[in-house]
């Protein structure tokens, strides 16, 4: 894995919330496309996530129910033009 290169490219900050080592937050190198789906161990397929967002992403991606729930929530947010909710769903999906 290219953990160090990914961290460096993303300035040691979570790509979602921008928090990082400076805030005392643990960061992880995440596969954007999971290995199970043919994602490669390349810098381009990596992103820096804080512990919280790394956990959230794993949790919701792992379960089909979780994923479907967020797709529905996103549609609902679009209908209501709820930008905050849309942004949150986009971050998870
Ligand atoms: Zn984060």
Shape: globular
Strand proportion, as a percent range, falls in 5-15%
Which ligands occur here? zinc ion
Query: What is the end-to-end distance?
Result: 23 Å
The major pleated sheet works out as: 2 strands, antiparallel
Order of helices and strands: HEEHHH
| Percent helix | 40-55%
Structural class: mainly alpha
Number of helices: 4
**Gyration radius, in Å:** 14 Å
Please state how the strands of the largest beta sheet are arranged side by side. Answer: 1-2
Give the total of beta strands. Answer: 2
Count of structural domains: 2
Point out poorly predicted stretches: none
**Average pLDDT metric:** 85
Describe, in plain words, how this protein is organized in 3D:
The chain is mainly alpha-helical. It folds into two domains: 1-51, no CATH class; 63-93, no CATH class. Helices cover 48% and strands 11% of the residues. The protein has helices at 3-9, 51-62, 64-79, 83-92; strands at 27-31, 46-50. The chain has a two-stranded antiparallel ribbon. It is globular. The chain starts with a helix and ends with a helix. Bound molecules: zinc ion. Residues 14, 16-17, 19, 49-50, 52-53 line the site of zinc ion (ZN). Zinc ion (ZN) is lined by residues 14, 16-17, 19, 49-50, 52-53.
List keywords for this structure.
93 residues, mainly alpha, 2 domains, 4 helices, binds zinc ion
Produce the secondary structure layout.
Elements: H1 3-9, E1 27-31, E2 46-50, H2 51-62, H3 64-79, H4 83-92
Antiparallel strand pairs: 1-2
The protein binds zinc ion.
